[in-house]
Amino acid sequence: MIEEGDELTNEHNEEPQETITRVTGMYKDWFLDYASYVILERAVPAIEDGFKPVQRRIMHSMKDLDDGRYNKVANIVGHTMQYHPHGDASIADAMVQIGQKDLLIDTQGNWGNILTGDSAAASRYIEARLSKFALDVVYNPKITEWQASYDGRRKEPINLPVMFPLLLAQGGEGIAVGLSTKILPHNFIELIDASIKHLQGKRFTILPDFPTGGIADFSNYNDGNRGGKVRVRAKISQLDKNTLVITELPFGTTTSSLIDSILKANDKGKIKIKKIEDNTAAEVEILVHLPSGLSPDKTIDALYAFTSCESSISPLGCVIEENKPLFIGVSEMLRRSTDNTVQLLKQELEIKLGEFEEQWHFASLERIFIENRIYRDIEEEETWEGVISAIDKGLKPHIKHLKRAVTEDDIVRLTEIRIKRISKFDIDKAQQKIDALEEQIAEVKHHLEHLIEYAIAYFQRLKKDYGEGRQRKTEIKIFDDVDATKVVIRNTKLYVNREEGFVGTSLRRDEYVGDCSDIDDIIVFTKEGKMMVTKVDSKTFVGKDIIHVAVFKKKDKRTIYNMIYRDGRKGPSYIKRFAVTSITRDRDYDLTNGNKGSLVLYFSANPNGEAEVVAINLRQAGSIKKLKWDIDFADILIKGRASKGNLVTKYPVKRVELKEKGVSTLKPRKIWFDDTVQRINVDGRGELIGEFRGEDKLLIINQSGVAKTVTPEVTMHFGSDMIVLEKWVPKKPISAIYFNGEKELYYVKRFLIENEGREESFISDHPNSQLEIVSTDWKPMAEVVFAKERGKDRKDNLEVNLEEFIDIKGISAMGNQLTKDKINQINLLEPLPYEAPEEVHADDLEVVDEMEVSSESPTETTDNTSGTPRKGESDHEIDDEGQITLF
Asked: Name one Pfam family in it (predicted).
């Protein structure tokens, strides 16, 4: 480094070219001074009261102007400028932000809308006053420390004596020089409960609660410290089969920004929507209309993946303590705030105790002064000193019980008592006043001795007085990650030029492969036995003589590739089966032994591990007797893609023919339901629902009396009112007892699902109708508990065998009346024993387990995405030049 005064010379030691002079003096500290000012005086809130300076000055000004009536915001802003050295715009904006949080300011007029992002009206049109809560917890001039304002003309509070974790309730955000802060808002009631737990010495956890509602995953919240992350989502539900409705927003978005993000995703082809309507008023309502035939569940996931319906927030707890920035978690913020509240309550009690003792002291002096007629002792005194001395002398015999010495100020106050008051003095009333003061003193002393209990009672009072309507708005939930490649709309078409070896979306004159998206990967196989996975692009060279191309699905253990290849130009032929689960993008993989001249004789891609039967035809050569025979791929084990395979023949193969289409050789998929995220999966998380083959379906029954069967997909969403989720057995009846709102009686029915894939209600559509119990057992039992009628004994409980009570009828049938007697409740009992038809479990099937598919595959890193593979061509014939012909 060149020090001040050092000279720069060239390599020939010529005369100096230039010098570096360091800038010193006033410039040296300017940046540090500016950074400190921004951090301390503008951007970061203080931990003591949770306010930034501008917010504190607004609150102080509002207290100055407070007379119980509304004041124009413009007047408040003007008054605040006496304390705040910046312009009126910054004050007005800060005040609107406080008012929109609906805690400290009682607003009147158009203060904007946090849901739509609409700004507030001009400050001359809107009004404000302090809320009852603010008057209760923010102010107490007797325990407030004061400092001179920026121009020295007035006094302003250093910190307001806030006796509540206000910073956590309102949240705070600011960008300073070199640091920033982002403290998320928390729930009012939960903060009070946590403060009480802290005072009781118990552990507590607090999580953010956003005014816009929505759903949030706080599993990585990290107590609000740096490095934490909160995932927030809009609340989206299905209104009907072609309409989604958004009713709550993720924090940090508005209806306008959310709709814009949806329209952009639609324009880019990530999602597909018909139109969007914004019906937001007091509550959020955004209707997303879908084209017919589009999956609502998949679209919901796509909205989370490609729009602002899901976003990530990174909290950062930074506050000012003793004029220094402090990085701190929300739990510690709450502890410090609660401890500070206890100390403020203690100061308040001590001041109150001093006031009561002063009142008691003077009331006692006044009684002594009047009751003993000491005022007569001053009648003959001619000087002021004599008057003071006479009263002091007259009091001395009666002041032994007082708690402090009598001062001259006390005597002066006695001389100010009017004659009228002396003449009407009532000793009993005076004593009652003294007794009342003694009770108040005792009460305050008791509170000081039991300060923690007093603080707990204080927080409980706040909860009782101000907690109504402040229940949690944001639903706490753990999110399942959305795989963007599984929910993206296939917005483009993929083409292939097999001979030249090009694939891409711009080859419209060549062979059409299928639909894909611009974030998909494609997998390609060539006749030389080479394989490659590459990103979808307009035109990509992957190798000549392509025999199969499809969208690649990452970690796909069910797509099995069947292959027969010749090793080298004149080598033997081998047969192999393999899966491709993970791979490095844009790398050539050789599926043969690697000898020059190797050739693929037969290839097929099978989405469910199908194993076909093929016929091997040899060329007539020498003394070969058997020129044709069949091979069943089901006899070949599924191994890694790098395996050599099993020997087919050492003789030249003329052609390979498909003789019989294959059936799946994979076990049925086991599907689990994870109650934590309310999603199904194939990864073993949650409760096992069952083993599903291709045609098997899920049975879903909701509390509203709606049943439906659906093909299980991991993108499915399930409503909160779902009460039955199981593998559907078509011949297994569903039994239900429901209250018919029109008849005002209970009915029993048993039925089968008649229309697969369609939602059907099995109770009456009367608004008072409701489902009591539903059972999918073969022989369900129910217990009826009767209501007690006046003047009669309660009837014994009735056990009902639902199978015997009613035959299986149509799903729309009303059913049979259960009883005419009034019913208290209906309980579902243990079903009667029944041997259900045995199902062949996956473990008993002579098929390949998915877990074994890639057991011999080498482990590789990958950044591939997934897609839906397309079944490849099955029949190939090799002509005399060794070319593959596709049938």
From this structure: DNA_topoisoIV
Give, in degrees to the nearest 5, the angle at Cα 764 between 762 and 770: 85
Tell me the Cα Rg of the chain.
Answer: 41
Distance CA 502, CA 331 (A): 59
- Among left, alpha and beta (phi > 0; psi -120 to 50; other), residue 42 is alpha
Q: Which positions ≥6 away from 336 have C-beta within 8 Å? A: 47, 328
Annotation says 125 is catalytic? yes
- Out of 428-442, 473-487, 649-663, 790-804, least confident range: 473-487
Q: 618: closest CA among 583, 573, 587? A: 573
Asked if 290 and 242 count as a contact pair (C-beta separation under 8 A), the reply is yes
CA 873 to chain centre: 46
* Rounded Cα–Cα distance for residues 130 and 139 (Å): 11
> How much is the pLDDT for 577?
93
Amino acid at 210: F
Q: Name the strand (E) or helix (H) holding 277.
A: strand 275-278
368 token code pair: 């002594």
Which among 632, 628, 621, 620 has a CA at the least distance from the CA of 564? 632
Contacts of 438 (CB under 8 A, 6+ apart): 360
Question: What do you get for the CA distance between the two ends of the chain, in Å?
Answer: 75
519 class by beta-carbon count within 10 Å (0-12 exposed, 13-18 middle, 19+ buried): middle
Residue from 526, 503, 641 nearest 584 by CA:
641
* Other beta carbons less than 10 A from residue 685's beta carbon: 15
Q: Using one digit for the tens of pLDDT, what is the confidence trace for 485-510?
A: 777 777 788 999 998 999 998 988 88
Q: Please tell me the distance from the alpha carbon of residue 183 to that of residue 185, in angstroms, as a whole number.
A: 7
Question: Which of 534, 108, 40 lies closest to 324, judged by CA?
Answer: 40
Global model pTM greater than 0.85: no
Q: What is the pLDDT of residues 121-135, one digit of tens each?
A: 999 999 999 999 999
DSSP code for 789:
P
Neighbours of 784 (CB within 10 A): 21
Q: Which two tokens stand for residue 214?
A: 């929505």
Contact call for residues 284 and 249 (beta carbons, < 8 A):
yes
Q: Between vectors from CA 745 to CA 740 and to CA 751, what angle results, nearest 5°?
A: 55
DSSP 43: I
What 3-state class would DSSP assign to 791?
Answer: coil
The pLDDT tens digits for 155-195 are 989 999 999 999 999 998 888 888 889 999 999 999 999 99
- Alpha carbons 604 and 612: distance in angstroms, whole number: 9
The DSSP line for 795-855 is PPPEEEEHHHH--EE-TT---EEEESS-EEEEEEEPPPP--PPP---GGGSSSB-HHHHTT
* Burial group, residue 258, by CB count within 10 angstroms (0-12, 13-18, 19+): buried
Annotated catalytic residue, options 37, 125, 512, 834: 125
Phi then psi for residue 507, to 5 deg, are -90, 60
Beta strands 324-327; 318-321: pairing state: antiparallel
Rounded Cα distance between 825 and 783, Å, is 8
CA–CA distance, 747 with 736 (Å, rounded to integer): 8
Helical segments of 372-418, H only: 384-395, 408-415
Cα–Cα distance for residue pair 30/173, rounded to 1 Å? 25
Mean pLDDT of 208-232: 91
CA distance 123 to 100: 14
- CA pair distance 854, 666, nearest whole angstrom: 13
Walk across the sheet containing 492-497 and list its strands: 511-516, 492-497, 502-504, 540-541
Could you give the CA distance from residue 446 to residue 425 in angstroms, rounded to a whole number?
32
| Phi and psi, residue 769, nearest 5° | -70, 140
Query: 10 Å Cβ neighbour count for 615?
Result: 14
- 661, 753, 741: which is closest to 710 by C-alpha? 753
How many C-beta atoms surround the C-beta of residue 741 within 10 A? 15
